[in-house]
Amino acid sequence: VSQSRYDKLTISNNRLGIDASGKNINLSHGVGIQVRKFSKRFSLSRTNLGILIDHNQIGGMNRSYGIMMDSVQTFFAIENNIIGGEENEAPPNGSGYNGIGIYLNEVDVGIIGGENFGRENIIRYWKKGALICDKTSNITFRYNSTYCNKDRAIELNNWEVYNPSPFRQKPYVTINYIVS
User: Could you give the CA distance from residue 53 to residue 8 in angstroms, rounded to a whole number?
Assistant: First the structure.
């Protein structure tokens, strides 16, 4: 999706890379969901939501990205998604999730998960990480389940570019609760 003429963008209730019986399809498409250059003025909270990505199941045998957002200037919510296929409590046999579960580049404000339990995402089997944020600002990652990703599930890159001192004082990141 690449256009910002719309008041709100909703991507919901899709099964990408998964057939009707729940089996992962042998495909090699790079990105499950991609949003580029989306802007909604004065969208700074859930009450004036610009993008909602929810209740999607992103699987298949090979993917570079589950969800990718680039140059997004609106409040977004990514919730209740399953990102990364699974069969018999393991990645699909022969699969190659060599990429990133959720990749954000130059994204301003939003939430991945929810304010409380019940809106969490499941992000699994990504070799480059569950969530990578590059040049982002106010992103909340809360009440999600990440497992069987690389050594680090979450990676922040070039954060100081969008959050220069003295506007953002240390600590730059607050981690409230981790369950392993």
Answer: 11
In the block, residue with structure tokens 């570079």: 64
Reported in sequence order, the residue ranges of 87-161 that DSSP labels E, i.e. its strands, are 100-113, 122-124, 131-134, 138-142, 145-147, 154-157
| Letter string b/e over residues 75-86, b meaning 16 or more CB atoms within 10 A of that residue's CB | bbbbbbbbbbbb
- Per residue in 128-144, pLDDT (tens digit) is 889 999 988 888 888 89
Q: Distance between CA 132 and CA 156 in Å, rounded?
A: 6
pTM passes above 0.85: yes
Under 8 Å CB-to-CB from 26, ≥6 apart: which residues?
A: 60, 61, 94
